[in-house]
TrEMBL record:
Residue intervals of the Glycosyl hydrolase family 30 beta sandwich domain: 433-494
Name this protein carries in UniProt: Glucosylceramidase
EC number of the protein: 3.2.1.45
Taxonomic path: Bacteria, Pseudomonadati, Bacteroidota, Bacteroidia, Bacteroidales
Record's signal peptide: 1-20
């Protein structure tokens, strides 16, 4: 199948070869009927909404003649914005279970294809649950017997999550890892903060303030236990979806509670133990779930916490999901407190109307480029891999979600969905530590893009054409220009020195 391709591509193509892919999904393998040019000045990666190209690699030369194109976008590295931290997906318990059902060889090829920064897509930031999530094999925390002295990493993490994380780290040792709890141990819960009656349920309840210190110790012990396994936790969020009582495992936590927990317990505990993991608040929807009456006073959740200097001193920033509200909330929060960072940490696809074409366009505009152009430092989507039955999943959680990759019951045949590619388009060309930079010049309705300068001084841009016509775009960096086509309904990532 490689006979028509130049030899210089052969090694690169092997990396993107799908292990057991759906015949209709080329899984990032360049189409042999659409060969790229010989390696040159600029690398391009192309995905079209119609699926004719999926992470197709091409390369072009700089323009040799003076640029006169009216469709020129000029990069301005002198004006920079946020420093990027990475892009990836959630490595849930269900993801790990599915990955470990694959053959070792198939799994190794897929993980290399996904995480290798040189020969793969270079995913660089992942999210895991601290204890169970709605995509685990059971409900659990790491201290289900009362008393913090009973803390121990749970069997499910030891059996599924940690082995997969170690395989990822072997490919990408600098991977950033965010950990988020779906619930505290049940013995720490009360029904509400007025009655404070014990609440023996995985779903809902609130953290008993009497256990703030123990719960802070729980975070410290978790980070230290993972470190003893060779896994460094880059950041933690305090609670996944704190304003959602209704997930299979959940804990209701207002901004007032997060403020008090951080300033009286978690922040001091991290400082005392020398924990460097970043503390990130909120981790929920743009609209603060204000359509529920109990959340009416939760609008601007992180900003309320930042206004308390005792709490704010420990906090790196806030995380957001896209299941309600609009991405413009990120820009508003940034404008009102520029000292804190912003992260995008969850969006899923599922059987509620998904198509590769529609979500490739929506996700790139609303989640990937959309959050980055509104100050997000990282973009992480939900499950990396689910099975043909949308799981394993927990009753009360999402039972209709798709993964970035869906795997069939043979644990070999895979479909790479839109999320897999949108994240890949960012991770491949934008390295951790890159700065988003300003641009001037050509703009058009339906054309979206962001530009970056990487730590190695290379430039990168990610572009989306959401129109029905191809666009010939010229990029200029002050020293070079180059021109390329952005096909109708497509995403193109470019990188050059």
């Amino acid at each position: 199948m490689f006979a028509k391709l130049p030899i210089v591509f052969f090694t690169a193509l092997l990396l993107f070869t799908a292990c057991g892919s759906d015949p209709k999904d080329n899984g990032g393998v360049p189409d042999p009927d659409q060969p790229g040019t010989v390696a040159s000045d600029v690398d391009l990666f192309i995905t079209t909404a119609n699926g004719s190209r999926k992470f197709f690699h091409d390369s072009i030369a700089f323009n040799s003649k003076p640029n006169m194109s009216p469709y020129t976008i000029t990069l301005n590295p002198a004006e920079s914005y946020q420093v990027m931290e990475g892009f990836g997906a959630a490595i849930t318990g269900s993801t790990c279970y599915n990955l470990l059902k694959m053959s070792a060889g198939d799994r190794a090829r897929l993980l290399k294809e996904t995480f290798d920064p040189v020969s793969g897509m270079g995913y660089s930031y992942i999210r895991i649950s601290m204890g169970c999530s709605d995509f685990s094999l059971s409900e659990y925390t790491h201290c289900d017997t009362k008393g913090i002295e009973n803390f121990a990493l749970h069997t499910e993490d030891k059996t599924y999550v940690i082995p997969v994380l170690k395989e990822i780290l072997a490919i990408r040792p600098d991977i950033r890892i965010m950990a988020s709890p779906w619930t505290c141990p049940k013995w720490m819960k009360v029904n509400n903060l007025t009655e404070k009656k014990p609440f023996d349920s995985w779903t809902s309840g609130q953290l008993n303030p009497a256990y703030y210190q123990e719960y802070a110790t729980y975070f410290v012990k978790y980070i230290e236990a993972m470190k003893s396994e060779g896994i460094n936790i880059t950041s933690v969020t305090i609670q996944n979806e704190p304003l959602n009582r209704y997930n299979s495992a959940s804990l209701y936590m207002t901004w007032q509670e997060q403020r008090d927990f951080i300033k009286t317990a978690l922040g001091p505990a991290f400082r005392s133990a020398g924990i460097q993991s970043k503390i990130i608040v909120y981790d929920h929807n743009y609209n603060y779930d204000a359509d529920r009456a109990e959340n009416k006073d939760q609008i601007d959740y992180p900003l309320h916490i930042y206004s308390d200097p005792e709490a704010a001193q420990y906090i790196d920033g806030a995380a957001y999901h896209a299941y309600g509200g609009d991405k413009s909330e990120l820009a508003d929060v940034h404008a009102r407190n520029t000292s804190k960072n912003l992260y995008f940490t969850e969006i899923s696809i599922g059987s509620w109307g998904y198509s590769f074409a529609d979500d490739l366009m929506w996700n790139m505009n609303e989640v990937c480029l959309g959050t980055i152009n509104n100050w997000a430092k990282a973009v992480i989507v939900w499950n990396f891999m689910l099975d043909a039955n949308h799981g394993p999943n927990r009753p009360g959680g999402c039972t209709t979600c798709y993964g970035a990759i869906d795997i069939q019951s043979d644990y070999k045949t895979m479909t790479r969905n839109s999320h897999y590619y949108t994240i890949g388009h960012l991770a491949k060309v934008v390295a951790p530590g890159a700065k988003r930079i300003a641009t001037t010049g050509y703009k058009a309705t339906g054309l979206y893009y962001a530009a970056f300068v990487n730590p190695d001084a290379s430039y990168a841009a990610v572009m989306q054409n959401d129109t029905d016509k191809p666009l010939n775009i010229t990029l200029a960096d002050g020293s070079h220009t180059f021109t390329f086509e952005v096909s109708a309904k497509s995403v193109v990532s470019v990188k050059w020195k």
